[in-house]
Amino acid sequence: MDIKDLDRLVEKYDRQGYQQIRVKAGDLEIEVSRQLTTASPLPTTTAAAADDDQTITSPMVGVIHLASDLAINQAVTKGQELGQIESMKLFNPLVCPQTGTLTTILVADGATVEFGQPLFKMREDR
User: Fold this and answer.
1) Which of 32, 53, 56, 93 has its CA at a distance of 20 to 30 angstroms from the CA of residue 46?
2) Are 109 and 39 in contact (CB under 8 A)?
3) Is 5 helix (H, G, I), strand (E, B) or coil?
4) What are the boundaries of each domain within the chain?
């Protein structure tokens, strides 16, 4: 494989929207990746965020699709779907771990999220 073949391959995958490719030809192995672009984050909107707020993080890498009725100061229940994370063309539900009040939404709908990235802050009801 020469450099022209590699250039054509990278351009082809770029046009198709791939973020990363790995090519192995004989003893040669090359990995090419481009920086992911994320949707601009929402302005940090907080409803009296306290130090005891719990952070809900992303369980996987993917694109987040927030629930349409999600709002700051909204009462949420354990198991309630806060949105979905699309990963490898599969939509995985993102559920609330406990009952409480959503105090902050840290990501925009359609943003690319990483494993462990903070998505929401919530205050646990006592």
Assistant:
1) 93
2) yes
3) helix
4) 3-33, 54-124
Identify the pLDDT of residue 19.
Answer: 66
Nearby residues of 125 by Cβ (< 8 Å), 6 or more positions away: 75, 99, 100, 101
pLDDT in tens, 86-111: 988 899 999 999 999 999 999 999 99
Strand partners, 92: 85
Q: What is the pLDDT of residues 11-70, one digit of tens each?
A: 777 666 666 777 777 777 777 666 554 444 444 444 444 567 899 999 999 999 999 889
CA torsion through residues 116, 89, 23, 15, sign: negative
- Domain 54-124 -> CATH class: mainly beta
3-state class percentages of the chain: helix first, strand second, coil last, to nearest 5:
10, 40, 50
Cβ-contact 94, 69 below 8 angstroms = no
Q: What would the two tokens of residue 78 be?
A: 């354990």
Would you state the pLDDT for residue 30?
Answer: 72
Please report, in angstroms and rounded to a whole number, the separation of the first and last CA atoms in the chain: 63
